[in-house]
Amino acid sequence: MSTNTQEVLATAPALPTAAQVELIEALIAGLDEADPEPLDEAWIKEIERRSADFDAGRVKPVPWSEVRDRSRPGESSRG
User: What per-residue confidence (pLDDT) applies to 34?
Assistant: First the structure.
């Protein structure tokens, strides 16, 4: 693990929760999606199962904006 990575991992927990979420979102957004790692068989089966549940109407999708808002303390409208 690089020194920069170690520094980020050491300092990130001290950030406010909202800043940690922003950091995570920025890191995920920065991943190179052009060269993803191949999925193993277990993940493929899980994706197929979830897709079938969605197609059959057994699950209710939740928009990313709602999930993101729920993860930020003080910014959600949980009830």
Answer: 59
Q: How far apart are CA 79 and CA 73, in angstroms?
A: 13
For residues 28 and 20, the answer to whether their CB atoms sit within 8 Å is no
> 22-28: which pairs have CB atoms within 8 A and are 24 or more residues apart?
25/68
* Model pTM score: 0.41
Residue tagged 């079938």 (tokens): 52
- Could you report the per-residue pLDDT of 44-69, keeping only the tens digit for each? 999 999 999 999 999 999 999 999 99
d(CA 54, CA 67): 17
Q: Closest by alpha carbon to 18, among 7, 26, 10?
A: 26
Q: 17: helix, coil or strand?
A: helix
